[in-house]
Amino acid sequence: MDRISRWIALIAAALAANLTASLAVPALAGEKAPEVPAEEVAPAEEAATEPDEAPDEDAAAGEEPAADGDIAPPGETAAAAKAVPAQKPVRPALWKIADEDTTIYLFGTIHALPSRIDWLQGKVADAFEESGELITEIVREDPAQMQMLVFGKAMLPQGETLRGMLSPEEKAEYESALAAYGLPAQAFDRFEPWYTAVALSTVPMMRDGFASENGVEDTLQSRSATLGQSHGALETAEYQLDLFDTLPLDVQKRYLAQVVEDLPTMKDDLRKMVDAWKHGDAEELARLMNAQEDDPALVEALLTGRNRKWAEWIGNRLEEPGTVFLAVGAGHLAGEGSVQDQLSANGIAAERLQ
After folding, report:
1. 343: enclosing H helix or E strand
2. Alpha-carbon dihedral of residues 130, 134, 135, 138, nearest 10 degrees?
3. Are 160 and 352 in contact (CB under 8 A)?
4. pTM value?
5. How far apart are CA 148 and CA 14, in angstroms?
6. Please, are residues 135 and 325 in contact by the beta-carbon 8 Å criterion?
7. 306-312 contacts, C-beta under 8 A, 24 or more apart
8. Strand ranges (E), the chain
């Protein structure tokens, strides 16, 4: 196959959002990379000082369109608000795995969200507040240390450039995609294809009002600290970065090509995924991700292999008493090869609560 499917681009975008606070993306955020020569990143940083296109009001406010049924547009009159169709309740899917003395709540997250989606309520809030321990994919590290880690993995060797790796057709499509977002052609010349793909996949989210501080993990982490819960992780940030950094070069280039191709529709794709997540529609989430057409090795590395390890972790954790709230990306809890499928293969049942 010439390109990886949209599903991998979206899974990778979700992983990227989990690391967004530490992904020093000079072309997008104007941040300076630690110990990287200024001449190598300055062009991208200078571009960040130029004003972007003004986003629409909904995106700037981190709001969803009124048609989505959650938030009325700014300035809407009371009379017009009454005409908005009845809102669907926000009820993301929640599962429970339990034995005699252990309960593990399994919750699918969206790592970056628009503002004002009230999801921490009802059964989810009850399960979370009942828990003494929060487990997420990673516990975020110090941003300065993370920047050093990211750039240590993402930079190309001296004398190599990203665009130098691309065919004339790939280069033209890539440069056109950058220009569409007001980014200079040389913005990511010093970076490996995987990093460039990760950075570009955050652009539609950022410009549409998605932010990691609105995401599930940040909300849970803040609330967990207030409740005095312990907070652990299934993986480390370095491990997640290595999922990309260790991909073969041809796979990295396919990933970048897919992101470039999907950038114009990624905003809508992400919104559809968020809508399915809000309403606990795991089947629709699986359909949107369309995993069955992907490179098996890539699916194993980014999804099913991790799901298998997490199911093993759950099985081991059941040997210890207590109540745990386990929050992982929603894509891991939908479709064939999900965490629930892996648990079932191990003889462990996951009960759907909502």
Report:
1. helix 339-345
2. 150
3. no
4. 0.79
5. 21
6. yes
7. 306/235, 306/332, 307/332, 307/337, 307/338, 307/339, 307/341, 307/342, 308/342, 309/234, 310/234, 310/339, 310/342, 311/339, 311/342, 311/343, 311/345, 311/346, 311/348, 312/346
8. 94-98, 102-109, 133-136, 230-233, 322-329, 351-352
| pLDDT tens column, 206-223 | 888 888 888 899 999 999
The helix/strand count (H/E) of the chain reads as 16, 6
Q: What is the largest CA-CA distance in the chain?
A: 63
pLDDT digits (tens, 9 = 90+) for 45-84: 333 334 344 434 343 333 444 444 444 444 554 554 455 5
How far apart are the C-alpha atoms of 229 and 260, rounded to whole Å? 41
User: For residue 349, is it left (φ>0), alpha (ψ between -120 and 50) or beta?
Assistant: beta
Query: Is the separation of the CB atoms in 94 and 277 below 8 Å?
Result: no
Separation of alpha carbons 134 and 228, rounded Å = 10
Amino acid residing at 182 = G
Q: What share of the chain is helix, strand, coil (3-state, %, to 5)?
A: 55, 10, 35
The larger pLDDT score, comparing residue 81 to residue 306, is at 306
Burial of 135 (0-12, 13-18, 19+ CB in 10 A): buried
pLDDT tens per residue, range 228-278: 999 999 999 889 889 889 989 998 998 899 889 988 988 888 889 999 999
